[in-house]
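Protein 1 of 2
SEQ + STRUCT:
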Amino acid sequence: MRVLRTLAAALVALVVLGIFVVGSGADTVPTITSDASDYAPGSLATLTGAGWGAGEEVQVVITGSDGVVYQDSSVTADEGGGFVVLFQLPEQEVPYFEVVATGSSGASATTAFSDGRFIDPNAVKLNGVTLDALSPAEVTTTPGATLTAEVTVTTTVDLCSPPIPCIGDEWGSTRWRFGTGAITCVDVPNPDVSDADTYVRTFPVTAPSALGTYTFAVQVFADNGCPAAGASSIVFRAFAIEVVAPPNAPPNTPASLGQFKSNGTTAIPAAFLVITASHQ
């Protein structure tokens, strides 16, 4: 009998422990987060919910700083209490967006993100020549030559009110790339950009060493060093420059990583473009 009482007590203890373990999961605080703190106009934001009840209906409302409700949708949390909602930002500039998620249980969570700096796709230049999206290359240069790139960037009003990040009006660095070559990051030269306005900045870029026609991609960031936070969308120009042999130079072999495929379509530098959605 003593053994039976001991086993019964142990069983009760395990049941009680199980109740507390299971019960602790119910106390999880629901959240909703965005995959970036700052987006360019027209970008796609991914919102992720966690900690909600399994099968719980969650209403997700996205409101801009202009008071407009840009998206009001309902989603069902999965068995793990998670969900994903996609939001296409408008093409026009809106300084920031607030997200409110409300579950059928009455629980709620909020987050926010800004619609920060973006590049004018019609004002990207090399050596003073504006690069069109699909026109044949108008800039001709020689291998390894130094060119001057110019970009025009508009920054937004920085409300600096948590959870809005304080980076909406800043432009600290620029990343660029020719074809499938190396990705280069350069910090914005003085004066620093720290107010909401439209700015034009130039920086040196080095032409590829092999002959051929090359694409050009450029992206700007809030801080120095091209960190992931505060990145703009990428502006991509398919026909940027043609690298030709200098006068009287011996024949050279075109780039093996050809900037154009045999069918004439552009070889997009995927390693660069996966950073964020392209916006032109």
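Protein 2 of 2
SEQ + STRUCT:
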Amino acid sequence: MSGLTQPTAVRFASDGRVFVAEKSGLIKVFDSLTDATPTVFADLRTEVYNYWDRGLLGLALDPQFPSNPWVYVSYTRDAEVGGTAPRWGSPGATSDPCPTPPGPNQDGCVASARLARLQASGSVMVGQEQVLVDDWCQQYPSHSVGDLVFGPDGSLYASGGDAAFFGPSTDYGQSGDPPNPCGDAPVPVGGAQTIPSAEGGALPIEGGVAVAFRREIAGAPDPDARRRELEAQFAAAHSPFARAEAFGVQDLLDPRETRARLCDWMDEIQTVLAGQLGPRRYSLRP
């Protein structure tokens, strides 16, 4: 196999074909592992924001492919939520910029994420992409979208990051032009975030409840009421002090000191990790 640039995901079809996603937004198909000349299945480069960690990262085939001719993709989209692509790049470009200003590590080039499915006819896409999720505001160019995989229950699982700043300063939604451009709780876009009430840079309770208790909520007699009940339950346990007391913790770290202490701990354990870590295993919650 050859003719690939920054491949990010590989999926094998039951008929022997190999689908490969490239970070730029191209999806290529090889007839077999010995095929050296791929066919371009789809070109999503105008929609995809290919910058640093951002790009087309998730790819999955329908479990019954090719009988069910669906190919699923997840990517960083070159537009704000609900906006028109491309915002930062150019139509059909393979690589996209983040100019200064706003700067990748200053105010950030705000983008979004998309989960969509594409219909295959042979080894080419037909029709338009069918958007399933068009959301997930992202301020900074790291911790972007992630992988796609079908679980044993037939559900499609999507992973992703928090799009928070990875540098030495703590990101809680306080930066940007306007500040807090993604509207992280509890203040709106343009609002001033302050610790400890700021929820920016982390998965909010609402998002965690929606993912972890999806089936329970859907099966409840009143789904909205059950969702609110679960959110209130976890919000009540949100304080670190009660959790620390339950585990007998005598002291709490100032959030501003956490990163440095974790880095020191990571350095100390490197010498013993090689002998203690077993093979990696991944599991899916049913």
